[in-house]
Design goal:
Pathway: Cofactor biosynthesis; NAD(+) biosynthesis. This protein is an alpha/beta fold. It contains five helices and four strands, in the order H-E-H-E-E-H-H-E-H.
Length: 192
Amino acid sequence: VTNGGKTTLAEKLKKMLPNCDIISQDDFFKPESEVETDERGFKLYDVLDALYMDEMVKSIHNWMKSPASSGVVTEEPQNTCDNLKNTDDVYILIVEGFLLYNYEPLNELWNRRYFLTLPYEECKRRRSTRVYQPADTPGYFDGHVWPMYLKYKNEMEENASNVVYLDGTKSQEELLSCVYSDIIQELKKLRK
């Protein structure tokens, strides 16, 4: 969901996990001139066609081929604990975005899937505090952003499995703790 805390969570996890890097879907938006406009004059940013998804997939595959040379900073995580000992050879890529599980070429790549949710009113409130380029036009949230979120969420629920749903109204610390613990469990499984 837009303004659910995806980037904040990813950045905090990166600081806590060894050899961790982030690829953000927001970095693959097409320029405004290439984004379609609907009959109401809304720029259709909340659809897969507004993104260079092939480029995103290529970036992920490039990272996977050579994570050690990807520019990942291998400094000690802030939260060094027994769970992270002997992880020099482990590389973690966090891919964060709002339409990740609706793009078929990505579906085979995930070890873990997290989906942040927000109720309509909270999402609209948070969205209203952000400044976008181009700026949201009046009615854009209700006319495009929220309906596209619901559409893609329904599609994802029909097609994606093993998704961990996270309540975006919980504190950043609570969300971080939940996902961090889950990743540590996943790392233990992968090391066996």
